[in-house]
């Protein structure tokens, strides 16, 4: 079974994002949350949004199951207050849940949290987390390390007061965290080209230089997009870890940390697989999202990452089984248990 | 001749940085620039700072010439007003100039600009630029794309009003620009591990998505640290360029853009050389700076990047000659002319 650990519901009907726009506009112009329920999306709309896109792609590419979450760019934590962001997160998570119910063999849910820029994750975030895991059967969460959307103005991931209460809930629920920023309201950062990759690198160094993994030894984090810049600069980070007295970088990081394979060319995947242990890589393609184009050199979609893995000269069959299947079942323990039943 | 295009004077006597600390402290506590001249550093101090460190390393590693600039972390644009930052830049540039005068066969200068967070580069920046190029014989400049030190609160590199007058001066002087952030005052970003690499990636995408190279067709930019995350995500960026209607990424970027080889492990250098044309790679090691440690796996310093280049299986002798020598002479045209005389 081939599990893609990183898919987003990017193909929702336009009414979904239009509602969010009205929500943000209402808040910005009136200072009050929009007094309007989110639009109903029919089963047929959801079915065709998925069947004609993600599921079609999965079948063509030989992917069996996608760990599926709301559109990352749409999480939009930097706009909206708590009431708006809870309404929005509940709505987006419910849409993902309906996909999972309609196509239970092909999709399992990961939730968006109703984070709010400038506000410590509190009861509203934890309530939605519990609802998604306990009631909807989701198996993980996306956590935005920069809910300020490119201003990086809230505390870093190692801040005990700000983040640790949430981590305690994640440990209690036994779910892993994918680090994933959302949109950018800083003109320096193109969201998908810059902010996503910088967010990954930033989270990596925060993990490397803090005691977070010591304080939460069982908590698992996935850094998407191949870990941002980290594998390319693995020598830099290994050396800095030694300079800082942090010891061997692999030993320090790889009880808790995983990188996905959303790296869209053969040399990048080759580097990732050369540098990062196969036990710590999860197959993913982030479809359909960041890049829609076909590579004119190969005639294949850039984001058809399975092609690069299959062409790897360093992966053994046992490594492939880990990356495609077993690592995901170990990290997303609730998924592992669901599939065993 | 082997030219290292990225070295910093990181080994100045402690009095140098102590002066900067007093400058910043004075400004923060009194609101006025420090009324004290920078400390005199003797020729002997400079000679031993270089001979026992950078020059020793260069000789051991077989590097002939280093393109040398003030300590990047010390540029410190995020602290200080214009008066303080001019005093500081002049002082730091003069120290580099004295190194170049003492060891003219081994060092050529690149200047620090007296940028100030929140302030458009104006007369003070341009005056120091002219002084360094015309009077001190420097051959290039370091430009900080985020003088706010991790807050990213000034305009991006494509902002015409903010940056273009400076670019016009650089074109007139025929000098290239190395993009290099300085320290970070944002707790999210470790300066050398995060901010440097994110700064590189950020600049890359700003170049890719803007008309800057069209507007300044002769201006050359070097992104250090192997281009941040860009080569690792080259497929992502190629695909996004197609999605955005920007055409072929290599054609778009490589008339104006160069990456250095400050990537501290073999797989990283292999990827860089696989993905980026040899015409657009400049040899560099950033000594002594980011990483001081020895790799326990190889017994070599992480930052001895020549070892990785020599071990590359894809570089021809002609490629090596470009990366070690000819590209630098073409990009740093004033250096090329100096060496021809």
What does this molecule look like?
2 copies of one chain form a homodimer. With 341 residues, chain A is α/β, with parallel strands linked by helices. Helix content of chain A is 48%, strand content 10%. Chain A has 13 helices and 8 strands. In chain A, strands 1-2-3-4-5-6-7-8 form an 8-stranded parallel beta sheet. Chain A is globular, with a radius of gyration of 19 Å. The interface between A and B is large, with 57 and 57 residues.
Write the layout of secondary structure elements.
The structure is a homodimer of 341-residue chains.
Chain A (H helix, E strand, L loop, with lengths): L2 E7 L4 H17 L12 H19 L3 E6 L11 H21 L4 E6 L10 H13 L4 E4 L16 H14 L3 E3 L11 H19 L2 H4 L5 E3 L10 H10 L5 H5 L3 E4 L5 H10 L5 E2 L22 H7 L5 H15 L1 H8 L1
Parallel strand pairs in A: 1-2, 2-3, 3-4, 4-5, 5-6, 6-7, 7-8
Helix pairs in contact in A: 2-3, 3-4, 12-13
Got a strand count of chain A?
8
Largest sheet of chain A: 8 strands, parallel
Q: What is the oligomeric state here?
A: homodimer
Proportion in helices of chain A: 40-55%
Biggest protein-protein interface? A-B, 57 and 57 residues
Series of H and E elements of chain A: EHHEHEHEHEHHEHHEHEHHH
Radius of gyration of chain A: 19 Å
Query: In what range is the share of β-strand residues of chain A?
Result: 5-15%
Distance between the amino and carboxyl termini of chain A: 15 Å
Order of neighbouring strands in the sheet with most strands of chain A: 1-2-3-4-5-6-7-8
Number of helices of chain A: 13
Shape of chain A: globular
Stretches of chain A where pLDDT falls below 50 for ≥5 residues? none
Structural class of chain A: alpha/beta
Give the rounded overall mean pLDDT of chain A.
Answer: 97
């Amino acid at each position: 079974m081939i599990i893609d650990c990183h898919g987003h519901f990017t193909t929702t009907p336009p009414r979904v994002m239009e509602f969010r726009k009205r929500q943000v506009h209402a808040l910005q112009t009136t200072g009050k949350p929009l007094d309007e329920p989110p639009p109903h999306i029919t089963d047929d709309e959801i079915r065709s949004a998925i069947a004609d896109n993600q599921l079609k792609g999965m079948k063509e590419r030989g992917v069996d199951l996608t760990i599926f979450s709301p559109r990352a760019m749409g999480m939009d934590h930097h706009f909206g207050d708590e009431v708006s962001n809870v309404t929005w997160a509940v709505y987006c998570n419910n849409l993902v849940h309906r996909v999972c119910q309609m196509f239970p063999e092909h999709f399992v849910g990961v939730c968006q949290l109703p984070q709010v820029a400038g506000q410590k994750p509190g009861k509203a975030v934890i309530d939605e987390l519990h609802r998604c895991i306990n009631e909807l059967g989701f198996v993980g969460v996306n956590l935005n390390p920069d809910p300020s959307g490119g201003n990086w103005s809230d505390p870093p991931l190692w801040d005990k007061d700000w983040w640790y209460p949430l981590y305690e809930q994640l440990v209690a629920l036994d779910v892993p965290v994918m680090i994933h920023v959302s949109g950018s309201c800083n003109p320096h950062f193109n969201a998908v080209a810059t902010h996503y990759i910088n967010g990954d690198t930033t989270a990596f160094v925060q993990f490397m230089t803090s005691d977070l993994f010591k304080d939460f030894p069982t908590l698992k984090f996935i850094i998407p997009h191949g870990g941002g810049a980290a594998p390319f600069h693995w020598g830099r980070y290994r050396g800095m870890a030694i300079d800082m007295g942090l010891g061997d970088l692999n030993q320090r990081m790889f009880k808790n940390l995983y990188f996905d394979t959303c790296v869209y060319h053969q040399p990048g995947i080759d580097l990732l697989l050369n540098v990062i242990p196969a036990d710590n890589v999860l197959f993913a393609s982030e479809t359909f999202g960041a890049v829609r184009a076909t590579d004119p050199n190969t005639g294949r979609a850039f984001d058809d990452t399975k092609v690069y893995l299959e062409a790897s000269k360093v992966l053994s069959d046992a490594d492939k089984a880990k990356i495609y299947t077993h690592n995901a079942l170990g990290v997303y323990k609730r998924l592992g248990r669901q599939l065993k039943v």
